[in-house]
Amino acid sequence: MKTSLSSFAQQAPWGTEANQILRACVHCGFCTAVCPTYQLLGNELDSPRGRIYLIKAFLEGQPVTAETQRHLDLCLTCRACETTCPSGVQYGRLAEIGRGMIESQCQRPLFQRLKRWTLRKVLPHPTRFQTLVTWGRQAHPLLPPKLRSQLLLQKSQRTWPQTSHSRKMLVLTGCVQSVLTPQTNLATAHILDKLGIQLLPSPAGCCGALNYHLAAHTEGLTQVRQQIDKWWPALENGAEAIVITASGCGVFVKEYGHLLRDDPVYAEKAARVSALARDICEILGKEDLSPLLSASPPSQPPVKIALHVPCTLQHGQKLSGVIENILKQVGFELTAVPDSHLCCGSAGVYSLLQKNISQRLLKNKLTALHSGRPQLIATANIGCQMHLQSQTDLPVKHWIELL
Hints:
By secondary structure, the protein is of the alpha/beta class. Helices cover 53% and strands 7% of the residues. The chain is built from 25 helices and 8 strands.
């Protein structure tokens, strides 16, 4: 794609990167076939190709409008387009650059600004979010049944394993997950303990993804630096990996090195963190799982599972098939899930900001997941887990808990 960026865009820190991404696009349109919003709305401007044209236009100096902002807001950043793109266009990165620039030039209506500000000031902060959840639990008789069931999730009474092993790994405790489903990391710690690996918890906190994806780039990168500081002492003491059980966080942590590549203080540390970041399926996929198999009850009939592989795992981290292989290896039966490449509509806080489209995508996803008559649904991301559970009576669990 031929480009002629404005002098402002050329001089911006992200100007060269944006220009390279734009020029990689050859307008082939393969991306439109896998774009969830284009499939629902049929509008070229709500496809990756259309949004690329919009970003190109304002980077070349055309006025930024609320309409441009709306089309970018409707993007889930599922990155299915990246998986199918024959030219390797880094659409997700271009979308982040575009959103950041538009946010600085196009002021949103007051209610939108307040809503986004509230989400940024509550969800990434575990203490604040825990307070909100506690209030919700106290008022649970007044809440809708589906929301009530999410706030009253049963928490495990197990404690973190205390056995010391020579092999040690860190874990991202996270923000929303640490409040709503702390059993996910707890299950991970017990599984790794059986495999001779000690999982070291870190203080709860956000990886920075939520702020960054809402175009609050400065705040997001501040949280990135804070997270690196939390992990650094253990990394210096020989921790061999950073285990992440929320795929949405995982794809972002793996980008730390790129995001802070020009930071004179954090560039080297961020690159090391990204290099050591691993989704839990990457860890287990390379380990001998026989200790888990020997602990399983004999002659147990296989449980039928509909596996939802989040976009952040299959498109963001390119880890399709890894969880499937692990679950089959330990004896679970996986049902077929049509159109498994399509987003469930969660996409971070998208389900809270774009409810109509999010619910349409959720309905389609649950129809696909239910089609094989599973006994439960498994996924790999806290946002997807809560989103799916909100509209199904089947239990929705993080797949690691099944082990």
